[in-house]
Amino acid sequence: MSTAVDDDLWSAIGDPTRRRLLDLLLADGTATATSLSEHLPVTRQAVAKHLAVLDRAGLVHAAAAGREKQYRVDETQLARAVAQLAEVGNTWDARLRRIKRIAETIERNR
């Protein structure tokens, strides 16, 4: 693959709560942990921990907003994740086409 897969990035995205947080941030532009927790069945503290994981992976960035932090998605890093996913998908599509050709060859030779 030409695009290196970033395990930390995919570990961060792999969690359903973190994916939901990304969805909410993409829809709203920016939000605080408190406002995000209103949309999820987890506490504000849990949301803050998930946001910290996303921040370490570079998927979100925070800016001080009074007593809280205002989070936004890093679209460049998200685009990087999309590119990696597309690359993995293309790789597997090619592998499956090769397996199909082998199976068809075996079937023809029977």
UniProtKB/TrEMBL annotation:
Residues 1-93 form the HTH arsR-type domain. Keywords: DNA-binding, Transcription, Transcription regulation. The keyword DNA-binding applies. PROSITE patterns: HTH_ARSR_2. It comes from the Bacteria. CDD domains: HTH_ARSR (cd00090). NCBIfam families: HTH_metalloreg. This is Helix-turn-helix domain-containing protein.
